[in-house]
Amino acid sequence: MTAFHGADACLLDSVRELRARILFDHGRRPAFRQADGSHADDQDLDLGAWHFIARQHADGPPLGYIRLSTPATGDRFQSRTYLGSERYEDLLATEGIAVDDTFEHSRLVVEHRSRKLGLGQYLNALAIGAAHHLGARAMIGTSGTKDGQDRFHEQFGFRSMPGTRHYVEKYTEDVVIMFHRVADGAGRHHDLVARLRDEFPRIAADAPARLASASPSERQAPTALADVAGPDRDVWQPTLLAPRGAADFAALTTLLASGEVREVHDTIDEQLTELIRSREPSCRDTSEIEAKKREQVAGLALWEYGTWVWYPWSQRLVHVLPRDEFRLVRTDRNRGKVDRPEQRRLLGKRIGIIGLSVGNSAALTFALEGIGGAYKLADFDDFSLSNLNRLRAGVHELGVNKAVLSARQMFEIDPYLDIEIHRGGLTEDNIEAFFVGGQGVIDLLIEECDTPWVKIAAREYARDLRVPVVMDCNDRGMLDVERFDLEPDRPLLHGLLGDIKSVDVAGLSHQERVDLILSMVDADRISPELAASFGELGRTLSSWPQLASGVALGGALCGEAARRILLDLPCASGRFYTDLDRQLSPERSTVT
User: Fold this and answer.
1) β-strand 469-472 against 478-482: which pairing, if any?
2) How far apart, in Å, are the Cα atoms of 213 and each of 117, 324, 539?
3) Which of 83, 204, 236, 420 has the smallest number of Cβ neighbours within 10 A?
4) CA of 422: how far to CAs of 155, 225, 431, in Å?
5) How far apart are CA 73 and CA 177, in angstroms?
6) What is the 3-state secondary structure (H, E, C) of 71-106?
7) What CA–CA distance (Å, rounded) separates 482 from 503?
8) Angstrom distance (rounded) from CA 529 to CA 513
């Protein structure tokens, strides 16, 4: 970690280029790239500010950066410019804080490859700790909201200021003012902030190193590595083209001529054979099947029949049957367990899923079984390397938002699904739209997030709207069912937390969050392994322990409960365990 204060021109230019390149984010924020291809983020606020640069090694390249501005440059604060001086000063006055006691942190940027190392948390904590050491009574700053940056700052004791959110073209997202009162502590990261506050004098005393240094190897990277563009991490919707229509025929022709199509996958003839056999299982004669296929396409050439689906994230063009025929064949093997009238009922249901780790397993199970035809997915987190122990995805998808990733996977199972995603997770701003927007109130909520406020607020909405809630806890196969559709006065989480409200759990400290989650999952019933992990979080463990087998089981349990609820089959409120340790114990074997 390197800190410098002042206006070292050479170092400052390097800092500005680093910031702009990361903010540009493969074209997401075009304003940070110049016409000549260079990146620039020149701000007068840099002069006189503290600058913190993070590297993995002392001589390594910079991986992250954050700026801390003191009241000496308060007239140039980003938050003052954003609000206007009069409104800025009124806001501080309302909080009982003097302008000269307020610091601002800004420009937190971290290279994509380092975001899951916790570097952003460390840099943010360092800037806050430095401000505390330098005498701040309060801190202020602007925060983006598209990817949950505002919720990230809330973990450090910041809160968003009402009425300050609006869209900023330069950042291509809504921006909000965040405020932090030093006396209130630093939220779940209070201990880290306190430690870095005490270490700040030593960090500040270190001589600033060069921002960029030569690689240990003098070999140049292959030119193609720099020339090839990275994947678009935001795209998630396929394009459906039915070439019988003139407009879709023209679009398909243009697409094929564009050079973007990497692979054409056409098995429509085999799919038609399956369609005939699904409708008439007793039909085995090859010539009869061929005659029925010709009757099905009704004079169209095979390439004209059905739908061509363009998946831009994989650059594949896939030929599939029309929607009703596609779904009839795809769910044909469900029959005997879920017959076609029930399949049609399920496809008419709308399902909301919050938290796409365990929730990803549920979402894919639902898509595979045909449970639900419309979905709303919410998660602010990106798929990271440490998620590969339990999420079905590949290394080429690292860095993709989990809601985007899940939508892509579901569309690759059924391109005719109706999916809406919320990349910032569930927030006060979108919670109503999540439950009631679009085609009406959702029929079922799957809640699989780790944030106490979301857990409680989502259940408050679900109870008010009589939406049943299902949750898997990924420990001892614990499945939680709350039938608010049948019991609208049922206490949240079976009353384990008393008459709790979402406003009661905003801004909890780390320990308070742990205690609350322990109460939610019933501390006396959790596995010994999970119980032992709570005291190690942030010390020897980076996060909750989870295994792919447990997540897969959770998806199966959620799927079973969802199908029962949506088809009006028996499924009562309660908490149920499918404990594999117990199920696989020798005494339960049915073989003597």
Assistant:
1) antiparallel
2) 21, 60, 32
3) 204
4) 20, 32, 10
5) 18
6) HHHHHHCHHHHHHCHHHHHHHHHHCCCCHHHEEEEE
7) 21
8) 19
- Type of residue at 509: S
Query: What number of H helices and E strands is found in the chain?
Result: 20, 19
What strands lie across the sheet with 478-482, from one edge to the other? 418-422, 374-378, 350-354, 444-447, 469-472, 478-482, 574-577
Spatial contact of 108 and 74, defined as CB atoms under 8 Å apart:
no
CA distances from 150 to 159, 179, 354, 376 (A): 8, 11, 18, 21
- Residues 121 and 589: their CA atoms lie apart, in Å, by 48
Picking from 542, 543, 535, 420, the residue whose alpha carbon sits closest to that of residue 474 is 543
Would you say 124 and 66 are in contact if contact means Cβ atoms under 8 Å apart? yes
CA neighbor of 451 nearest in space, from 484, 489, 470, 424: 424
Q: How far apart are CA 471 and CA 453, in angstroms?
A: 15
Tell me the CA distances in angstroms from 151 to 113, 147, 171, 239, one per residue in order: 21, 9, 17, 33
**Coil, helix or strand for 353?**
strand
Chain center to CA of 229: 23
For 357-425, the three-class secondary structure string (H helix, E strand, C coil) is: CHHHHHHHHHHHHCCCCEEEEECCCECCHHHHHCCCCCHHHCCCEHHHHHHHHHHHHCCCCEEEEECCC
Tokens of 522: 């019933």
3-state secondary structure 41-74: CCCHHHCCCEEEEEECCCCCCEEEEEEEECHHHH
Question: Distance between CA atoms of 582 and 579, rounded to whole angstroms?
Answer: 5
Largest CA distance in the chain: 88
pLDDT at residue 308 in the model: 98
In total, the chain counts a number of residues equal to: 592
pTM over 0.70: no
Place of tokens 């806050």: 128
Q: Which helix (H) or strand (E) holds 274?
A: helix 268-279
Is residue 203 predicted with pLDDT exceeding 70?
A: yes
**Rounded to whole angstroms, how far apart are CA atoms 79 and 236?**
33
Q: What is the pLDDT of residues 56-88, one digit of tens each?
A: 666 677 788 899 999 999 999 999 999 999 999
Position of tokens 């003097």? 98
**Cα 359 to Cα 347: distance, rounded to the nearest angstrom:** 19
End-to-end CA distance of the chain: 63
Find the helix packing angle between 340-347 and 323-330, rounded to 10°: 120
Tens-digit pLDDT profile for residues 301-352: 999 999 999 999 999 999 999 999 999 999 999 999 999 999 999 999 999 9
pLDDT in tens, 110-167: 886 666 556 788 899 999 999 999 999 999 999 999 878 899 899 999 999 999 999 9
- Indicate the pLDDT class of residue 220, thresholds 50, 70 and 90: low
Strand, helix or coil for residue 311: strand
